[in-house]
Amino acid sequence: MGVAKPATQRPRLPGVGRLGLVEPTAQADLDTLGWNTDAHVELLWSLSRAPDADTALKAIVRLSEALGPGWAELDGELLTDRSLRGRLFAVLGSSLALGDHLVANLDSWRLLAGNVKLPYPQELREMFADQADRVDGATAAIPPLRTLYRDRLLVLAALDVASTVENEPVLPFSVVGEHLSDLADAALAAALRVVTASVCGDQPAPALSVIAMGKCGAQELNYVSDVDVIFVTDDGSHSSLALATRIAGEMMRLASEAFFEVDAALRPEGKQGQLVRTLDSHIAYYERWAKTWEFQALLKARPAAGDMELGNRYTEALMPMVWTASEREDFVPEVQAMRRRVEELVPAGVRTREIKLGSGGLRDVEFAVQLLQLVHGRNDESLHVASTVNALAALGDGGYIGRDDAANMTASYEFLRLLEHRLQLQRLKRTHMLPEADDEESMRWLARAAHMRPDGRHDALGVLREELKRQNHRVSRLHAKLFYQPLLESVGQASLGLSDVMSTDAAERQLAALGYEGPQSALTHLAALTGSSGRRGRVQQVLLPTLLDWLSDTPDPDAGLLAYRRISDELAEQRWYLATLRDEGAVAKRLMHVLGTSAYVPELLMRAPEVIQLYADGPNGPKLCDVDTESFAKSLVASAARHADPMRAIAAARSLRRRELARIASADLLGMLDVTAVCKQLTLVWVAVLQAALDAVIRANSPDGKAPARIAVIGMGRLGGGELGYGSDADVMFVCEPHAGVEESTAVKWSTTVAEQVRARLGTPSADPPLEVDANLRPEGRSGPLVRTLASYEAYYTQWAQAWEVQALLRAHRVAGDLELGERFLLMIDKTRYPAGGVSPETVREIRRIKARVDAERLPRGADPNTHTKLGRGGLADIEWTVQLLQLRFAHKIPALHTTSTLETLNAIGAAELIAEGDIELLREAWLTATRARNALVLVRGKPTDQLPGPGKLLTAVAVAAGWPGGDGGEFLDNYLRVTRRAKAVVLRVFGG
């Protein structure tokens, strides 16, 4: 008896859940299609592999309804033609727009059946030319040309995405970009053909060449992109030029309606320039007027349609200019401005989603590659290529970037372009924006459309997120390495005679193009930094590509690199230093900004390097802002008090002052403190140093521990107003009072000795910013005694006070020494500076006379009165004298005016409605603007100065240090002139009466 054979196992139909279908109507849709038999198992599994199976299924249902009886043919083909199935399901699951196209054009699905290949460029041109010849007029041409263009997009997209469903070959990125560019060429040629026939009829058409620019010119076009073009003709006669312009304009309109947006904004003078120019006119423009970005755009210029011979003459004439653009005088600042402009185009909230313009995005790659081509292309014709991918390969072959870096950057670039293509395919809309991070469905669709597969640890969505993070990080890191790693290799290995190392000339050329004015010195610094054996040299090799990139964005990369070398040499034995720069990216970036902007801070950091550690972020924000300056001031005084020797006490105070100045200035340069906070903190530091020095000198001059007198220091000017800047001296007066039983003469003599020693010891020259104590505002000025008793001051001010002395007292405030004595001094002078009944008309006239004399005589020879921050038009003196005159006139009636701060006084003036609120705002803005500019001048130059420089690198540095958005020196200066001009008008009206 034989054994029964088991029945053949029948394939089981998968449920909708296993197919990845989540729409409630999915099962009903499958039943409508009749896809519910055993014969459809393989077909259903193919559907499940579509990037969005639900979207693909809905499109199939719509297509079946539209086809009616014709559905049976397609249904049968899907069962037998695996390639058709893979292409159709993949494209319908990837693109809503192409699904709509298939429903509207019911025969187009046949283009995806059988052995499908992409046509050659000439075949494409012939297809579009044939279609163009079959229509009569531009309007009639649009629908059939649009259908043909969408059909060809459909075929390309289907081949591009088919591997997501079936094991179809993956189309290389370069093939997709080239075919899209070929398709654009054919479409432009067809549009030109239609329009020329319509406009010219039987008369001869003018020679007209369409030059493709941008991605189309480079043959790396997107699915949806503006196609950038330039139009060239060879006949400059009025009639011919007018006819060519009409043809070009109508061709753009037709192409934009039928295919894609056509943009001619890259032409000379942009949208304001002529749409069509002769070749000679183009040449003249680029020789005389073109900007660096225009030569960068020409890197990708290519004849695409029309008169190809004329187009070739265009590129032959202009390309030599492209390869000399890097030698232009304004090349470096224009390149830096372009980089900043790109970064500013992207709102901060979407930078992580922007795959084109965001950090680590496509534009980073393209900009870096094009810049390197411009720098080295004059000497190396192998770099004369348009495609980004080809250029990366050529740069690697030429030793301008590392071969591994070129390969990695190419892989990252192609990955990001793949995502860009998939996002655009969905609705055939121009976009570079990733879905929101919490939109998991959209992200999951993108992952599947971009060939992401589960890897054992993550599903497709998780793989995409990890890959995005990795690729963005790699692009950001390689962006710096592309520029600088070969430079480091050249200084380290050029002596070995290796052929694949960048030559010294090429290295200098590249550094110059990146903003280094002394490339030879820069290479010397790089050699010194990386030449150390052991750990230091290795860490510098890793750090420097990124540090140099950050430095190149600063106003003075050369000075920044020198400062970095000096600090690195000084801290060579401090392990924390390089470890901090390596592990704390924020510290390194902030340090490079400071070193490349300021001459003031690097000198402080050399002697107070521990401040660098405060550049890191803490739990509550940057550590630079965590310090309480008032508490610091108390600790400075206490630290100095531990030393009996006054010189050692003052040295301790200087050391802590140095550290605090470095902290305040660093926070200021990094935009972490506003100008009023800077002035307040600088004042607190000065007051603490004065107190520490006074205490130390008193101790040294009181052997038995008993001083013969009390002494107080009265702050005047900016010190009294709490408005010190980096370059301010300390204007003071000293007042004393004998202790019981001590002769007044003895007390004054002792106090004078103390005051003189404080001034002398603080004024001792050192490497730190100076500590000048100026007592020239005392009664009788330099001719008067340095110290007086309270009674002597009272007698003098009651009987002899002049108008300028009364005005100076408006800013008097006790700052150091015996605070009770200082308070009594202030109460005593109140009746002089705020006299009952106000000051006399004669005093007001005298103040105005003195101001006129100051304006005429005090401005330094050669200074520009429009840009002198202190004595210039609408500058600090103008604002402060105006405010002080109003105090003199009205403080006896308005107690709120009894303040030494300029800004607080302005607020009180406004509250009392002494002048219009609009005028108050103009004066306040001018004071803040001038103070900010004056501080920035010291930070940049490293020494006190009041004169803004003219246009150039120094002005740009001042703009950056002052926190001007974008760091444009010209805009900063224009704003300064505008603000101070308006303030001067108020000063003339209010101060002049």
TrEMBL record:
PII-uridylyltransferase/Glutamine-synthetase adenylyltransferase domain segment(s): 337-483, 851-986
InterPro entries: GlnE (IPR023057), GlnE_rpt_dom (IPR005190), NT_sf (IPR043519), PII_UdlTrfase/GS_AdlTrfase (IPR013546)
Catalytically driven reaction(s): [glutamine synthetase]-L-tyrosine + ATP = [glutamine synthetase]-O(4)-(5'-adenylyl)-L-tyrosine + diphosphate; [glutamine synthetase]-O(4)-(5'-adenylyl)-L-tyrosine + phosphate = [glutamine synthetase]-L-tyrosine + ADP
GO biological process, one term: regulation of glutamine family amino acid metabolic process
Annotated stretches, region: Adenylyl transferase: 497-993
Key words, A-Z: ATP-binding, Magnesium, Multifunctional enzyme, Nucleotide-binding, Nucleotidyltransferase, Transferase
Cofactor: Mg(2+)
A single GO cellular-component term on record: cytosol
Pfam families in the cross-refs: GlnD_UR_UTase, GlnE
Enzyme Commission code(s) on record: 2.7.7.89, 2.7.7.42
Cited SUPFAM superfamilies: Nucleotidyltransferase, Nucleotidyltransferase substrate binding subunit/domain
Domain Glutamate-ammonia ligase adenylyltransferase repeated: 119-314, 589-826
Adenylyl removase: annotated segments: 1-487
MF GO annotations: [glutamate-ammonia-ligase] adenylyltransferase activity; [glutamine synthetase]-adenylyl-L-tyrosine phosphorylase activity; ATP binding; ligase activity; magnesium ion binding
Role noted for this protein: Involved in the regulation of glutamine synthetase GlnA, a key enzyme in the process to assimilate ammonia. When cellular nitrogen levels are high, the C-terminal adenylyl transferase (AT) inactivates GlnA by covalent transfer of an adenylyl group from ATP to specific tyrosine residue of GlnA, thus reducing its activity. Conversely, when nitrogen levels are low, the N-terminal adenylyl removase (AR) activates GlnA by removing the adenylyl group by phosphorolysis, increasing its activity.
HAMAP family hit by this protein: GlnE
Family per record: Belongs to the GlnE family.
UniProt xrefs under PANTHER family: BIFUNCTIONAL GLUTAMINE SYNTHETASE ADENYLYLTRANSFERASE_ADENYLYL-REMOVING ENZYME (PTHR30621:SF0), GLUTAMINE SYNTHETASE ADENYLYLTRANSFERASE (PTHR30621)
UniProt protein name: Bifunctional glutamine synthetase adenylyltransferase/adenylyl-removing enzyme
Species in which this protein is naturally found: Mycolicibacterium vanbaalenii (strain DSM 7251 / JCM 13017 / BCRC 16820 / KCTC 9966 / NRRL B-24157 / PYR-1)
Gene: glnE
